[in-house]
Structure formats: C-alpha cells, structure tokens
Amino acid sequence: MTLKASDTAVIVVDMQNDFCHKNGRLFVPTAPPTIPAIKNLLNRARSAGALIVYTQDWHSRDDPEFAIWGEHAVAGSWGAEIVEELKPVEGDIVIKKLRYDGFYGTPLEHYLYLNNIKNVIVTGTVANICVLHTAGSAALRWINVYLPIDCTSALTEFDMKAALRQITFLYRGILTRSDMLEITR
Ligand SMILES: [Zn+2]
Which pLDDT belongs to residue 104? Predict the structure, then answer.
C-alpha cells in the first residue's frame, strides 16, 4: 500500500534502552529483532520527506507508574535514551511522554495538526500498552492508523494478538508489513 509523505507520519514508540536493550530495566526480548525493519522504514520515510515522531517514556523518580512496573525510563537516565541504532536525526520530533498514551499531556496532537497529518504508521514497543494506546488515541482523532506488524513487539504472543485485535476491530487500523508499505513524495 502507498501513502503520501506529505500527510503521513511514522511514530516510533518507546524504542528506549530500558525496553530494547538486554541491560534495560524492562527488557522486551522480541524488541531488538524489530530494529532493522523500523530502521529501514525510517530511512525510506525520511527520504520521501515524511514526518518522523519518536515517543520517549520519561518518568520522574517518584512516578506512581513505578508501583505497577518498577522503576524504568527515568528522565535523563541511560535507560530512557532511544536505542543507538534508531537515534533521531535533525528534523525529527521527540515527544517525552508521561504515560502509555503518546498524546496524553504532550504536544503530539499539535505537531500532527501543524503538519497536516492524516495517516500515522505506528511502530515500536510494547504492542499492547504504549503502541496500542498511542494508536488508539490517534484513531480517536480520526487519524488513519497503519501498523506494520514486523515493527512492533510484545512480551507474549497473547499480548500481541490482543493489541492487534483492538487496533483493527476497535480503532479500524490497518495491519501491514513494513516491506509492503510504500511512502511516496
Ligand atoms: Zn512508563
């Protein structure tokens, strides 16, 4: 399928050391294998001139979310940094987020609106939490959601299936693979 770069953004959700590096606090073993596909998609999207947005989980030291998950993605820590292989480049937007939803309490909606974004290609981790909430939140704003399944990861197969079900059934997102997504100028 083909999307126009002028109204399409790629969102890379939480590809941070704490989730994607083996020494991370909440390592997701299926996340590193998605890095090459995300990188390839980003290269193609950047060449076509599409907007690239990263979300970065970003918690204060006493964040109540730590009662659920333990300490992770502490603001300014190594764990909160985006993995080396996917470092943002000049012109990309990096959104520091407080919770699962990349829109909640952040300027993400503002930037998508300013750039006339109608479609988002959502990638990153983990599928059933931050990817699902960010994709769902985009869909609630009537932005079309595309999810290349080789660019997302979850801790269990059930979590992955649950996320794909919600994204397609509830939010009417389109499942695809990164090599089937073409982004044109
Ligand atoms: Zn978090």
Answer: 98
